[in-house]
Amino acid sequence: MFTVLVTAQPPRSVPGRPAPSGGYGADAGLVSGEAVELDIRVARLGSRVLALLLDILVQFTLAVVLLTGAGILLSSLLGPGALDAAALRGLQTVGVVLILVGYPVACETLNSGRTVGKLAVGLRVVRTDGGRVGFRPALTRSLVGVAVEWPGLVLPLLTWAVGVTVMLTDPRGRRLGDLAAGTLVIHDRSPAGTGYVPTMVPPLASWAATLDLTRLDDGLALAVRQLLSRTSTLTRDARRRLTRSLWAEVAAVTSPPPPPGLPEWAYLAAVLAERHVRARQRLARTRSVTSTLWPELAAPAAEAPGSAAVRPAVPALAHPVPQPALVRPAVAGSGTPNGSTR
């Protein structure tokens, strides 16, 4: 749920700090109260057209249900032929207004800026300052949309071309209704990132190979990882202070000491990269042992469809255990204990 309160100020560049670069094309330009740019993507033409097509399908279904229900209800109450042509046209106009204007206004006001189509695609209408859209902005963007965008009651072909041009040229992909109402459409669901992958600093590769990392716990390694993945979003002073503090903690639990002459972030990156390499090596050894002891887990054999082959519940033994020899009981009157005669 999008409940973060944000301000309408654009992102500002801070001296000594690189420009914020949101992941995955974050271009909404929304800034939180703590002056942190939110990682939010605006919805462009493709996703909005897909949401519109779904909403048109929903509106058509609602129109059929509404007209059918109204016809049955009026026929049962007033009788067939009780309404003249003018009354029928008036009722049809009311129905069209309810479908084209009432549907998006009600959905965006009561469902946090999401119609059925936007909910399916993962879009949401918000104000330009990031706040929740209310009744007045929803009504304004809906009226402008019906008049000059879709279905376009005023010069349909010309207004369609103008609307598409405005969406393609606007930095945040807003249409005419958004510009009039002070709103924009954002992606409510963002793709998950692949995460930060540590890389080895070449001058420190030989030193990192000799490190003793047994006392480096997961919590400290996670703190180093988070710092290195967020260095571009920190100011120079904050980055230097945090790097020195974390390197002091890491240097206290690792040995031997590093070669001098390199910054603290290089040491942290080398330590984290070496830890990552050793973790991958342990995982590879574990998988190798597993595939040797139980090949079925590593490479399941392809079985023909419909075959009745049953896999063993336990791995087959390399050397079968010899079974004890059976001894027959002695027979009374025999000359030998095993009942044989000489």
From TrEMBL:
Q: Does the keyword Transmembrane apply?
A: yes
Q: Which residues form a coiled coil?
A: none
Q: Where in the cell is it found?
A: Membrane
Q: Which residues form the RDD domain?
A: 42-182
List the residue ranges of the region (Disordered): 1-21, 321-342
Q: How does this protein lie in the membrane?
A: Multi-pass membrane protein
Q: Which UniProt keywords apply?
A: Membrane, Transmembrane, Transmembrane helix
| Any Pfam family matching the protein | RDD
Kindly list the residue ranges recorded as spanning the membrane.
Answer: 49-74, 86-106, 150-169
Q: Which InterPro entries match?
A: RDD
Which protein is depicted?
Transporter
